[in-house]
Every structure is written in C-alpha cells, then in structure tokens.
Design brief:
The chain is an alpha+beta fold. The protein is about 55% helix and about 10% strand.
C-alpha cells in the first residue's frame, strides 16, 4: 500500500515510540502529528474525534484509521512490506503474545511508574518512596519473567525481532535514565537483550528529545 501514513501522538510516549519503531523496521515514511498529553491536547474535540477515549497513538493510513497500539502494530506488520515482526512458528507467536500481555498487564505500570518517580513524579501524583520500591520490585519480576520467556533466544519470541521487543524497549529506555536502572535490570539475560535493542537502527532513530 502506498497511502499516506500519519501517526498522531506525543513523541515521548512509549506506545507512540513502539509504533514508530515498527514503521522504522518496515522502512516506511510517515508524518508524526504532535498531540501533547502533558498540556491536555488529547482531551480536545479534534483528538477525541480520532480516539474517543483520548489516548495515543492514533494511526491514519489513507482512509483507514486505527487506535490501540496492539491493533496498529499488527496492522502495520501485515499492511507494509518488509520482514515480519510476528513469528511464523506457533510457539514463537505464543511467546510473543505472552511477552506483550506481560508488558501491558504488569510491566508498563511498574516500569513507567519507577521511571516517573525520578523523571516526572508529577505524572504519578508526586514522589513516593513506597511507590518507588513497589515499582522496583515489580519491574524486576516482570523483566525476570520476560527473560525466562526469551530463554536462549536472541529476542523475546525467538530468533528474530518481534513486536514483543518493540513494546518493551521504549519503557526500558526511561528506566535506563534513572538511578534504579542497575537494580531493575538485574534480571538474568537482560543485559544481553538490552545491548542488542540499543543497537537497533529503529531504536536509535526514534529516541525522544527530552530537552
């Protein structure tokens, strides 16, 4: 498909970065239209017309519009040319789906909550040592279990990069900027995976400008 691709979202959002990494892996060009959630742009009528729940990202591909990162990323994987980010094998697809579910259900809240304690405490209602320690413990558990899922494979779902890697990487980026990074990342196998992620051209090209 050659239709124009537009992503609506906040550059610093981890889910927006996931979609942008998928597009980068596919070699697709797109326009990023800023929707700054920090100043409430996601609650304005023009954005609510795109996403009735006021979230980001939203994707437009020609006349098609989608929201929710899981749906967007799977759609882009199938709609665009290039190497698939969804494994062929039954078990590897299941590993990817488990990794995605762990991230969305348990990982995002813990990891972004930990990062927020240091980087943007106002996002979580202010700094709290109790919350920091709770998020730190849960973050280590999440990363430990995802690395168990990965096993001896180079990527979470097997021999090739998958959506599971592209969901987890942006959240880990924020944790890496905090004093708790070494403790949170102290999961067997994580260092090897993290080094591999940081070497991805798609990861480098989508790093948010936090200045």
């Amino acid at each position: 498909m050659s239709d124009k691709i537009t992503v609506y979202g906040f550059e610093a959002s981890t889910y927006v970065r996931t979609v942008r990494m998928v597009l980068a892996e596919k070699g697709a060009s797109y326009d990023l239209v800023p929707v700054d959630i920090m100043v409430g742009e996601n609650t304005k009528p023009e954005h609510l017309a795109r996403h009735p729940f006021g979230k980001i990202p939203v994707l437009e591909h020609g006349a098609r519009r989608l929201y929710e990162t899981s749906a967007i990323s799977r759609y882009l994987n199938d709609a665009l040319a290039g190497t698939s980010l969804i494994p062929d094998g039954l078990m590897d697809r299941a590993r990817m789906d488990m990794g995605l579910a762990i991230h969305d259900s348990y990982g995002y809240g813990a990891l972004i909550g930990l990062a927020a304690q240091h980087l943007f405490p106002e996002f979580v209602g202010g700094a709290s040592e109790e919350m920091r320690l709770d998020c730190l413990e849960k973050s280590r558990l999440v990363l430990t279990e995802i690395m168990k899922l990965r096993g001896d494979s180079p990527w979470i779902a097997g021999a090739t990069l998958s959506l599971a890697d592209l969901f987890l990487a942006p959240v880990c980026f924020y944790v890496s900027l905090t004093p708790d990074a070494d403790t949170a990342f102290d999961a067997p196998g994580f260092a090897d995976w993290w080094a591999r992620v940081q070497g991805l051209a798609s990861f480098k090209a989508t790093e948010p400008d936090l200045d």
